[in-house]
From TrEMBL:
Reactions mediated catalytically: a 3-oxosteroid + A = a 3-oxo-Delta(1)-steroid + AH2
Name the record gives this protein: 3-oxosteroid 1-dehydrogenase
Gene Ontology biological-process annotations: steroid metabolic process
Entry EC no(s): 1.3.99.4
Keywords noted in UniProt: FAD, Flavoprotein, Lipid metabolism, Oxidoreductase, Signal, Steroid metabolism
Annotated family: Belongs to the FAD-dependent oxidoreductase 2 family. 3-oxosteroid dehydrogenase subfamily.
UniProt cross-references to SUPFAM superfamilies, sorted A to Z: FAD/NAD(P)-binding domain, Succinate dehydrogenase/fumarate reductase flavoprotein, catalytic domain
Cofactor needs: FAD
Organismal lineage: Bacteria, Bacillati, Actinomycetota, Actinomycetes, Pseudonocardiales
Region: Disordered, residue numbers: 572-660
Length: 719
């Protein structure tokens, strides 16, 4: 396609030579101080900042809409110490944030980390002053590794508040639509989805749904056009640009960079050359929809059909930057997440794989990962294991009890799944585990054994294989009514379902290498004059990891443009600007250790572990023997559970703690639980009563049933 475009341009009188465009006619091209490529969060924030500094600016957008992937997203933003989180009482400090980020991202240069942490809060304040955007704190959305030094279990993420789309006027029609539209008549925030999944079984979930409906009703009565999440973020930034009189040219894609005397001085588009007196800022997104680039740089199997990124993200900025001499990094990585390949667009799994009563298996019918781990970690494990123990696709297995209780994607509890999901092979249903195994092509005996072992662990509340529930993050998308571990519940009620899981992504995270001022660098470390990059076109500041919800958007928000433009105002030649660096992918699923989830911040105060666990510090040292080398080691520990499981199977049941368990409940359910957990049925007596009673495990403290849907009284004591 690029070649054809060049041929067309050549026929129009433009000569392209070695990536340098020179006009063949004397007609004066457009000219601005700053030319921004891409109208996502990174590009629009950069343009807004340039305009506020008194520079002329234009935004060039390839798509017929503005907003890019940011408009499609949930728009969480992870930026420590910003004024929104501090006003909410989050106990954050610059030193704490620096310790945490360093532990998460590993060997990302310290000056890049420092620039992000210093400029990020200023960027949030700048956007609040120069646009109609307002933000809300996502209370309780934990940092993804809260047990690391400086981690906060309460979280640091924020999201846009409601924006009335009428501020955009006719431009509202040009806003890129969301990835998943909210139900009609409801105004939903990103933080609501945790509770909406539980609306049928949890009072707060029902209240959250009612509040979302009330907001929608109030907005309709007032004649408003409420926008939230990515729609509010992109719409608010666009409204700021409209107020600053910054044009956004749609259907104007980057063809190449215009270079004069070794410096980037403009952008060549199909409509002609747009000159830049001070610099060009690339915010053109990733290359997730470029099949050739994905095949070249990324592990197989890969393609373009599993991503939820904007379809226009085909690596135009990457290729133009490389032609100008830029170095690239992290090209094999992405903002990964398990996805279900349903017809139309893949479904990116968040709560579905974390809610109790589900587990993920590989082609051998075995669990292989902490299902509740950060989504990028899960896919890293899938790719790491797949060559030797195939797990692409994997399968998420749940039972009817799970389906009766929880929202799944946009399907309400107990309602049938769409028929085209079954026809496409995205989901399989069967009344027995053996039948389900046969349908998805895994060994029946292995699946039975896996479910039996998982159910046994669910009864005790401890996942000794993969430590699901050890981290506070694991408990965000779970059911608080399920105890002692809100992540774990047995699978007991047929029919059973298996959802196909593939490596999805929110976009790629590899791109042009930049310094702390967002200047694009060559392989030898020298600067490409006049060229800057932010967002997914640049190599992410998060490296191969993911600090918290909104790590893709937060660092990509052009946070360092402010410093550069102040310098520019004093007469500097080049326009420094945010080097955006994001961070999703990455590391350790179960390296946490049972920390106390009622602590507002963990890491430093309780040594990442519960005080009542005598081996807590020893276990943590095993997981993180050296924080300076943590990033290289964490993913290896994801596979430790697999080795533990194999060793346990080789030792046999004799190696497991022997327990006597008495269960009172419905006889068919109790018989199934006994079979699945490997417990002797001798102590099972049917109560014949359909009511909630208590569950007592281990220490003898009475608790509610940890497997909803079954009444019972369970006691267990080591023999």
């Amino acid at each position: 396609m690029t070649l054809n475009r060049r041929q067309v341009l050549a026929g129009a009188g433009l000569a392209l030579t070695s990536g340098v465009a020179r006009p063949a006619s004397a007609a004066a091209p457009d000219e601005f101080d700053v030319v921004v490529v891409g109208s996502g969060a990174a590009g629009m924030t950069a343009a807004l900042t340039a305009a506020e500094r008194g520079l002329s600016c234009v935004v060039l957008e390839k798509a017929p809409t503005f907003g890019g992937s940011a408009a499609r997203s949930g728009a969480g933003i992870w930026i420590p110490n910003n004024e929104v989180v501090l006003a909410a009482g989050v106990p954050d400090t610059p030193a704490k944030a620096a310790r945490y980020l360093a532990a998460v991202v590993g060997d990302v240069p310290a000056e890049r980390q420092q620039a992000f942490l210093a400029q990020g809060p200023r960027m949030i304040s700048f956007v609040l002053r120069n646009s109609p955007l307002r933000f809300r704190y996502m209370d309780g959305y934990s940092d993804y590794y809260p047990e690391l030094p400086g981690g906060i279990a309460r979280g640091r993420s924020i999201e846009p508040d409601v924006l009335d789309g009428r501020v955009l006027g006719a431009e509202l029609a040009n806003l890129n639509p969301p990835y998943l539209a909210p139900p009609p008549g409801m105004v939903i925030f990103g933080a609501d989805y945790k509770w909406l999944a539980l609306a049928l079984v949890n009072a707060k979930g029902a209240a959250t749904a009612a509040a979302a409906l009330a907001r929608g009703t109030a907005a309709a009565l007032a004649g408003e056009k409420p926008l939230t999440m990515g729609q509010a973020l992109a719409g608010g930034l666009r409204a700021g640009l409209m107020q600053a009189q910054v044009p956004v040219r749609l259907n104007t894609g980057l063809e190449d960079l215009h270079v004069e005397n070794g410096a980037v001085r403009g952008v060549l588009t199909a409509r002609g050359l747009v000159r830049a007196r001070r610099g060009v800022i690339l915010g053109s997104g990733g290359f997730e929809h470029n099949a050739a680039m994905r095949a070249r740089y990324q592990r197989q199997p890969i393609g373009t059909e599993w991503t939820v990124g904007a379809k226009e993200n085909t690596g135009d900025g990457h290729r133009a930057g490389q032609r100008a001499g830029a170095a690239v990094d992290l090209m094999d990585d992405a903002w990964w997440g398990p996805a279900i390949p349903v017809p139309g667009t893949p479904y990116f799994c968040l709560a579905e794989r974390t809610l109790p009563g589900g587990l993920m298996i590989d082609a051998a019918g075995r669990r292989f990962v902490n299902e509740a781990a950060p989504y990028s970690d899960v896919v890293h494990v899938m790719y790491d294991r797949n060559p030797t123990r195939p797990c692409i696709p994997a399968w998420l297995v749940v039972d009817q009890n799970y389906r009766n209780r929880y929202l799944f994607a946009d399907v309400a509890p107990a309602l049938p799944l769409p028929e085209d999901w079954y026809r496409s092979g995205a989901v399989v249903r069967n009344w027995s585990l053996d039948g389900l195994a046969s349908d998805i092509g895994v060994p029946g005996a292995a699946l039975q054994a896996t479910v039996s072992r998982f159910n046994h662990q669910a009864l005790t509340g401890r996942d000794t294989d993969f430590r699901r529930g050890d981290s506070a993050y694991d408990h965000y998308y779970t059911d608080p009514a399920v105890i002692p571990n809100s992540c774990l519940a047995p699978l007991w009620a047929p029919p059973f379902y298996a959802f196909k899981i593939v490596p999805g992504d929110l976009g790629t995270k590899g791109g042009l290498v930049t310094d702390a001022r967002a200047r694009v660098l060559r392989p030898d470390g020298t600067v490409v004059p006049g060229l800057y990059a932010a967002g997914n076109v640049s190599a992410a500041v998060m490296g191969r990891s993911y600090a918290g919800a909104g790590s893709t958007i937060g660092p990509g928000h052009d946070v360092r443009l402010h410093r550069g433009q102040r310098r520019l105002g004093r007469g500097e030649e080049l326009l420094p600007q945010e080097q955006q660096r994001e961070h999703d992918a990455a590391v350790e699923a179960d390296a946490a250790g049972n920390v106390r989830r009622d602590e507002p911040e963990r890491g430093e105060q309780d040594r990442w572990q519960r005080a009542e666990q005598p081996d807590a510090d020893v276990r943590h040292r095993d997981v993180h023997p050296d924080l300076a080398e943590d990033r290289r080691h964490r993913r290896n520990h994801l596979a430790q559970g697999e080795r533990d499981e194999r060793d346990a199977q080789q030792r046999g049941h004799a190696s497991r703690p022997q327990r006597t368990v008495t269960v009172l409940g419905h006889p068919p359910i109790l018989k199934f639980l006994a079979e699945q957990t490997g417990m002797s049925p001798n102590g099972i007596n049917g109560c014949g009563r359909a009511r909630n009673s208590l569950v007592e495990i281990g220490a003898g403290r009475p608790r509610r049933p940890q497997f909803p849907g079954c009444c019972g009284f369970v006691t267990g004591r080591p023999l």
